[in-house]
Amino acid sequence: MSMNSPKQTSHLKREILVRLIRAFLSDNFEENTRLIPYDMRPKGHEVPYRCCIYKEREILRDRAIAGLGASIEETDDSKLLSEVAKEALERTEPDSRPLTVLTTACKGCVPSRIYVTDLCQGCVARPCESACRFGAIKVTDGKSKIDPEKCKNCGMCAQVCPYQAIQKIIVPCENACPVDAISKGDDGHAKIDFDKCISCGKCVSACPFGAVHKKSQIIDILKCMKSGKKVIAMLAPAIMGQLPCTPKQLKQAILQLGFADVYEVAQGADVTTKTEAAEFVERMENGAEFMTTSCCAAYNQLVDKHITAMQPFRSDTKTPMYYTAEIVKREHPDAVTVFFSPCVAKRKEAMSNPNVDYVINYDELGAWMVALHVQVAECGESEFKNEASAEARNYAVTGGVAHAVQTLVPEEIPIHPVIVDGLNKQSIRDLKKYAKNGVCELGNLIEVMACPGGCLGGNATLNAYKPALKQLTNYVNESKSIVDLEK
């Protein structure tokens, strides 16, 4: 499953999805879904993670609820999994919130704080006292002590301690969230504030207990296929680095899952490149100081929710997913479109686009292939109908979007790309400064990617970054440049 999630939790999530898919394809979906926790932890089975088999089954039940696309917080504890499965069959559209929290799996970590360990020597220099701007730390009785009422958890005292005697206790999900959207609820467990959440998925990857879960839409997609609808896959470029096969083998494997056709989202990326390059030229000629890209769904939510002052500087160009879905709907008006995504954030974007019906992540695709025993490396090859450029296929990598735009900007228009490789508190502070001042001293085209490494480093990918990059690069190098395609 996702290479950006802890191995054991990824394995559990994948096994749940595999069993859900097989249950759907069985003669009794609801009953076989109900039995999943019992089949995975039968009586007498070793209990590898929790205190008892009953706790393990409870957590597996909740993971299945998320796999069915439902909200764990809103599902009554007494409701049988078979009832949740039935509701999934009756659902007409996916839940608007892409994430849910398993309180059964959440450890309820101690609050994030700075504390002094027994290694403190009460040294004469008192560097910790000097470093604290809030007067929160004093040496008393030969040892540093922190006043929790004054402490701001800035960590400066920990940075200057020569003995590393001052440590910061972090809560992984809270520490990973760049916008402080996740915190402890009244019950001590993690709770997501969706008014702040930008769906970056960093909390999903960070939690070592796998307590933050994506809500899958895979049952919705399977329902469409079972009803005989034409379901078309749209593959974001990062997928070309995920599985041990050629792109043409990958297309054939996806067709074997039941999809009617497969489109490369790189097609849409070529439209984005041309449109964004033209927009950049127009803005610079009209005296704009800078422009940011607009491909990353998490970044777009960040701007709309947290940096509204950046809106005038963000490109108005639509994303590759948007343009690809337009192409598919134009050619197949009756089709159900499914975007294959390396991250959670695209699910929020899809919900505001009537041309995109569902989103499946790469890790979910991997589970689907396991469930149907599809071996991609053994598949034949199927040609893509339309060719996409090398630059479009390289959108998956940090710097790829900026490079593609730069390729089409005339030489007489100065262009100086600035790359934001991952959203975190520091990069968000920088973006806020650029928006407030109306200028970016580093350059005039800012590419923003929420995930370090770009989409190839997304929170729902399958392959480790370096081998994925090598595989994608080979595909890019085999492709024609956008300039040559235009000839």
What's this, in brief?
By secondary structure, this protein is of the alpha/beta class.
- How many domains? The number is 3
Question: End-to-end distance, in Å?
Answer: 41 Å
Shape descriptor reads globular
CATH architecture of the largest domain: 3-Layer(aba) Sandwich
CATH class of the largest domain: Alpha Beta
Structural category is alpha/beta
The radius of gyration is: 24 Å
Low-pLDDT stretches are none
Mean pLDDT: 94
Question: What share of residues is helical?
Answer: 40-55%
CATH homologous superfamily caption of the largest domain:
Fe-only Hydrogenase (Larger Subunit), Chain L, domain 3
The oligomeric status of these chains comes to single chain
Count the helices. How many? 21
Question: In order across it, which strands form the biggest sheet?
Answer: 10-9-12-13
CATH fold naming of the largest domain: Fe-only Hydrogenase (Larger Subunit), Chain L, domain 3
- The fraction of residues assigned to DSSP E strands is 5-15%
Q: Describe the sheet with the most strands.
A: 4 strands, parallel
Count of distinct strands: 15
Could you walk me through the main structural features you see in this protein, from its secondary elements to its overall organization?
The protein has 487 residues and is α/β, with parallel strands linked by helices. It folds into three domains: 7-106 and 179-216, no CATH class; 113-169, Alpha-Beta Plaits (2-Layer Sandwich); 223-486, Fe-only Hydrogenase (Larger Subunit), Chain L, domain 3, CATH 3.40.950. 40% of the residues lie in helices and 12% in strands. It contains 21 helices and 15 strands. It has helices at 7-24, 29-34, 36-40, 53-67, 81-90, 127-131, 156-160, 172-176, 202-206, 218-226, 247-256, 266-285, 297-305, 320-331, 345-351, 362-371, 390-393, 400-408, 425-437, 465-477, 482-486, and strands at residues 99-101, 113-116, 137-140, 143-146, 166-169, 182-184, 190-192, 212-214, 231-235, 261-264, 291-292, 336-341, 358-361, 417-421, 445-449. Strand 14, helix 19 (425-437) and strand 15 form a beta-alpha-beta unit. The protein is globular and about 75 Å long.
